[in-house]
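ok new one. same drill as before - structure tokens go in, u give me an amino acid for every spot. 282 of them this time. try not to just spam alanines like last time pls lmao
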């Protein structure tokens, strides 16, 4: 009788909790952990995906968080900072310049980017804890086959031709972008050609994401000025040779294999976990 009473009480209590959560905007409950409608909308905004994809991402994140907690895996703020500093240095930027570039190109605040970096490092540690030894590095034939099948992915421009607009005042530069006929003596204008092999990876990425005859987002240069590039031409795309991209392909294949291991692992966890869909984002 006592056990029956406890069971009934638990059931009633859980139902009351769900009702309260429903009112407060819970979307999904994963093993007792809530994902709110706000969480889903934020993931949609940050990752630029639809509600279904955002919900799947958040469910996996919850399962990962529970697994990380169970395995006592952690990441320090120093590890996060060191990783960001390493990426910034590779792009020949200071930390502040890198944060500004991330904000302009991806819309992420420094806090959001730090969170993404922490998630990345936690995922790497979790992968190592789960199945690192089970994935073999790709052999030469595997790398060559990937290259032959994806040659177009390794096509790159030889140079970018652009008009560079520079100003000490961001608002004035933004007005120029919004209204091309606008003129100001506070804006310096210069025609330049940027060889692909002689500019930073961050600038390459910025220009590659920009359509011809349009402006890039405004970025901060290393002299404290605001800059936007009006892309006029992408010169002669050329294919990278096998030896140039061999290491890149090997890392790409390893990354795909590791992600497949993690995806399979968490798909099994998801299949066995107590997951309840409470309300979908409309």
């Amino acid at each position: 009788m006592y056990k029956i009473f406890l069971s009934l009480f638990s059931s009633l209590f859980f139902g009351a909790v769900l009702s309260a959560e429903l009112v407060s905007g819970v979307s999904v409950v994963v093993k007792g952990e809530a994902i709110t409608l706000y969480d889903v909308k934020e993931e949609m905004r940050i990752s630029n995906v639809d509600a279904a994809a955002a919900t799947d991402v958040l469910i996996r994140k919850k399962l990962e968080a529970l697994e990380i907690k169970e395995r006592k895996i952690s990441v320090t703020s120093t590890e996060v900072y060191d990783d960001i500093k390493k990426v910034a240095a590779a792009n020949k930027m200071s930390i502040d310049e890198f944060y500004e570039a991330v904000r302009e190109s991806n819309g992420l605040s420094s806090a959001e980017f730090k969170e993404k970096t922490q998630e990345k490092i936690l995922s790497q540690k979790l992968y190592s804890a789960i199945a690192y030894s089970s994935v073999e590095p790709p052999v030469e034939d595997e790398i060559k086959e990937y290259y032959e099948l994806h040659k177009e992915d390794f096509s790159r421009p030889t140079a970018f031709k652009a008009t560079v607009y520079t100003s000490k005042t961001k608002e004035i530069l933004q007005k120029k972008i919004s209204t091309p006929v606008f003129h100001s003596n506070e804006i310096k204008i210069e025609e330049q050609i940027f060889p692909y092999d002689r500019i930073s990876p961050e600038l390459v990425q910025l220009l590659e994401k920009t359509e011809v005859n349009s402006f890039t987002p405004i970025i901060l240069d290393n002299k404290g000025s605001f800059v936007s590039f009006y892309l006029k031409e992408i010169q002669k795309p050329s294919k990278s040779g096998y030896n140039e991209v061999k290491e890149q392909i090997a890392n790409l294949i390893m990354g795909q294999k590791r992600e497949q291991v993690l995806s399979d692992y968490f798909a099994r966890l998801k299949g066995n976990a107590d997951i309840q869909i409470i309300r979908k984002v409309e």
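Residues 158-236 form a domain with the Chitinase A; domain 3 fold (CATH 3.10.50.40). and btw The chain has ten helices and ten strands.
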